[in-house]
Structure formats: structure tokens, C-alpha cells
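Continuing from the previous page of notes. For each protein in this section, the sequence appears first, followed by its C-alpha cells. Read the first protein now.
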Amino acid sequence: MRLLDEILEYNKKFVEQKEYEKYQTEDKYPAKKVVMLTCMDTRLVELSTKSLNLSSGDVKVIKNAGAILSHPYGSIIRSLIIAVYLLKADEIIVMGHYDCGMQNVDTNLLIKEMWERGVTSETFRILKYSGIDLKEWLHGFDEVKESVKHDIDIIVNHPLIPKNVYVHGLVIDPQTGKVDLVENGYDRRFNDAQLNA
């Protein structure tokens, strides 16, 4: 059976047996008023929330490769802004993880894979002509804690993120679920308030 057929068959039984009931929440707003940016790594599908005692309905989760904010006006920051203004999130967690595929990614190998899967030399020429440096664009990060700090700085200094939103940085071990603190957003806001007093 092909994957999509298998998925749809399972879904039919899921609905018939009312399995959805255990995942229902009161509404679309995160109960703990938090939004988390984390990596799309398969090991984090449940671990990223369960390791923090966050359940269905507690948190909005945004995922991408490496939990990287690559542009201050891209879709990730837009989602964070929507979560803050429309979905009542007061806190943001940026969670990177050890052993991430985006750390020290081999962009030459990635581009070689593109060639092998049919991306044409014309496409590469158009991208280069358009000013897109594929190696730079595809590059992940060199050190996970520094990447998390980079994301936090973009969020905290973003003109559309309110100054009363706390932004925390964490790094999780995908094997054990142990979380290391990179930045406590409460401390940053406290220090910022002291500096501005």
C-alpha cells in the first residue's frame, strides 16, 4: 500500500473510533500563552513539547529546518507575530537541538543532490543572476547555541514584536530530552528595564 493510501485508511478509522476526542482543546489559543520555534527533526515531533510538559492546546509550534530565522520579514517571523497579536501568546521559545542536520551542512553536497534530481543548469544560472547565493542561502549554522541567540536577537529587536513579550532560548538533546538554557527571557527584559530606567 502506498503511503498516502495508508494514511487515509488510518484516518478513516481514527475518525470512526473518535480518536480525535483525546486531542480536542478548548479553542485555538495556546492555553499557556506561548509559541515555540523549533526544528522539523523527526525526533522532536513530540519530544520538543513533552519534555517541557506542554500538551495539545498549550502551545503553538512553528517548525523549520534548524529552527533558523533566516529573514526578519519571512514567514517564520510572520507566524510569531500572528501568534503574539492574534493568538494571545505572551512568550516565545526558540528551541534548537544538538545533532542537528543544519549544523555544518555541506552545501556542495546539497547542490550536487539537486543536480542529480533534475534541477537544471539554467535554473542555477537564473538564481545566480537574481543575486541568490545558493551556498549562503542553504547554509545552516556552525554552533547551535549561537544560532538560538541569533534568532532571539532578531525577535527581540524586531520592530513589530512588543517589548513585553518574553523570548527564551533552549537547546534540547534529541536522545534524552534534556534541555539546556541558552537565554532566560525574563532576565533580558529585567535587564533591559534596568538599562532604560
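Done with the first. The second protein uses the same format. Note its length before scrolling.
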Amino acid sequence: MPATAAFDRPSRLGSIGRYGVVFVVTIAAWLVTLPQELDAVPDDVAPFIILDLGIGIAVMALLPLRRRFPLAVAVTIAVVGVLSSAAFGSWILAAVSLGTRRRAWQAAVAGLVSIVTTLVSNAWNPVSLYIERVESAAPMSWWSLALFALLVNTLVMAVGFYLGARRDLLRSLRERAETAEREQASRAAQARSAERARIAREMHDALGHRISTVAMHSGALAYRDDLTAEQVHDTAQLIQENAHGALVELRDILGVLRDDAGGGPPAEEPPQPTIADLPMLVEAADAAGQDVNLALGVTPESVPTTLGRHVYRVVQECLTNARKHAPGTPVEVQVTRVRPWLGRGDLVVEVSNPLTREAGVGGGAASGRRHDLFSALPPGDRLEASVPSSGVGLLGLAERADLAGGRLEHGPENGRYVTRFTVPWPERSDS
């Protein structure tokens, strides 16, 4: 059940208290209208006195229906009031309940019926007529009685309108609080989801780079039977180092996720690489057998940390893709600032490699590398098929470009496969 619905329902104790007050007012209204000399009441008037109390108590049975049929209950009790002054207590509760609906036309109809029945009761009720005749009480004029009834109706309806407005205000405040709590919970869930997605991106980029190195070199060891003992030893050591690094990074990332899921204080993440770490990345790729040439045309200090991390991950993913799909080919990495005269210009990261493996074999740095296990592999070799592709590398790079407010382009250009990551040059680093 919604909390607001439960809030609108009265408590059992509150309902008992209301009916108790109505019963007390019913008895009081009956006692007030009794003749002063009960022993002298004639036999034709006495039954109406008993009937007055009986009707006043019986009409309380209509009160539970006042929430579903507020106008009908209030009008019915007002009509019954012609025979019973004791019904005044039940009428007050029904009229207040009707007023909480804050519908002016219903209040006007109920008030008009009440005024008319009051005038009729005063002119016809046998008990009232007996009291006026025997006790020589000065009768009220019809307009004075109507004015008094109007005043009582106005007061009762005003109480009902006030209670209705207060109830609506409390309901509105409660709904706002519940809405705010739901929105806060939704924002927290979205933040957790975004953080997990970010961690998953970092896991893909970091572990994919290391695991692809392990897979490629272990596959080359299985295919090449002409390697020296020193080459086998160095390659096995490289595989061990990258596997160990992958396990360490996996442990750190899973530790962050586990602490977050456990509800405890978040674990401190290890420092993330930035554009200043690109030379070390290139050195590691060279040690793993890739031929990578880095041209860093910007100073690392001029690039904000977040954008520098994007640049690092873009280069890392591109080197991983080159290692998977074009092993043995030289890779060119350029990080430059273009069009600085047009405002701030753009930061462009361009990574490219030849489309065919033969373009990178037989000369240059690749042919003389101690860890060059791939130069003797023919195009389309089963080694490429031995390294599975996640299929989300370029998608992750596109997401990074969107986060940084830039764009990603990739595809063949002039005999090379080019991946180009372009983002606006950050404002705070104009220099």
C-alpha cells in the first residue's frame, strides 16, 4: 500500500475517539432540549422524547459511510434532525467530514438543507412546541433562527475546510519527501552504475593490453620452433611479468567493487596513468616486441588529469588492437595540438599502422629486435585467430570521446589503418 494512502486512513484509536465525542455531544444535545418538569410531560409528548434519543443514537450508524458518501450522509442526518435534536452530534461530524473535501457547492447544499430542517423542526417538533407552550419560553423569530443556523453551519464548515487544507498540505509534504528520497536513491544508483561502468572500462583497457601481450607471445612460442634458448627465456619472462601485472590490476579493481558492494568505506583506487605515462607505455610495448614510434607534441603538464587519462587509454587500446590484428607492423603514435589560432584548437591523438604485415617486415627496427617473434609469421596466420577480440574496444573509445566532448574516427587511410581521437583543447591549459 502506498505510504500516502496509509497516511490518509485514520487510526483505529482515532476513530474510536471521534465516535466517543459524537456520543457525548448526542447525549448533551438531548439533555439540553428536555423539558424542565419531566413528570408533567403529557403522554402524547413523552414518546417523542424517547424517540429523540433513540434516533440520535441510531443515526450514528451512518457515520462510517461519510467518507464514501459525504454529501448524502450529511443531508440525511440533517433531515433526520427534524425529529431528533440528539442527531446534532452526528451532524457535526458528518458536516466537518464533508467540509474537508473543500467543495463549495456541496457545503452550500448541506448548509441550505440544515437551515431548512432547523426551521421545520422548530415549527413542527412536538417537544419544542410543548416547551414553548408550557414553560412560556419566548419563541425565536424564524429569521433569527435561520441566522443562528447559518452561523453554526459556517463555523462547522470552516473547521472542515481548515482540516482538509491541513491534511492536503501534510500529504503534499509527505509526497515531496518520498519523491525526494526516491530521486536521491535513483541518483545514487545511477552514480554507482556509472562508476561501475567506468571501472569496467578501465579493466577492459588495462587487462586487455596485458592479456593480449600474453596471448600473442605464448601463441608465437607455440608456433615458432627456430627460437634460441635466450629468446624463449626472455619471452617467457615477459609473459610472466604481464600475467603478474594483470593479476595485480585485477585484484585492485575487484577490491574497489567488493568494498562498494559491501556498503563499507570505498577503497582507495590506485593512481591512474595519464599522458605523462605514455613514454613508459611505449617502452613496455617495445619490450613486448612492438615497433612503436611516439611523437608527443604537447607538454604533459598542460593537459588536465582526466583528459590525460583518456589519451593514455586511447593509445593503450590502439596498441592492443595493433598487436592483435597487425602483429609485427610498426605503429606511429602522434599527440598534437592543431589549429591553436582558432581559439583553443583541438587535442588530436592519432595512432596508425600499415594495413599489410609485409609493410613492417624485413627492415627498420623490427627486423633486428630480440623479441620480434612475429616478423616471420605469414599474413592470415592462425596466431591472429588465437587472440579473441572483445568487440567493445572501439566502442569504449567512442564513449571516452563522448565523455570528453570530442569524436573518434577510425578506418583505412592511404594504405594505413588510422584511429584518430579529437577533443577540444581544455580552457585552463591555454599556453
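What the second structure shows: The first strand starts at residue 291 and ends at 296. The beta strands are 291-296, 330-338, 346-354, 407-413, 416-424. We return to this in next week's lecture.
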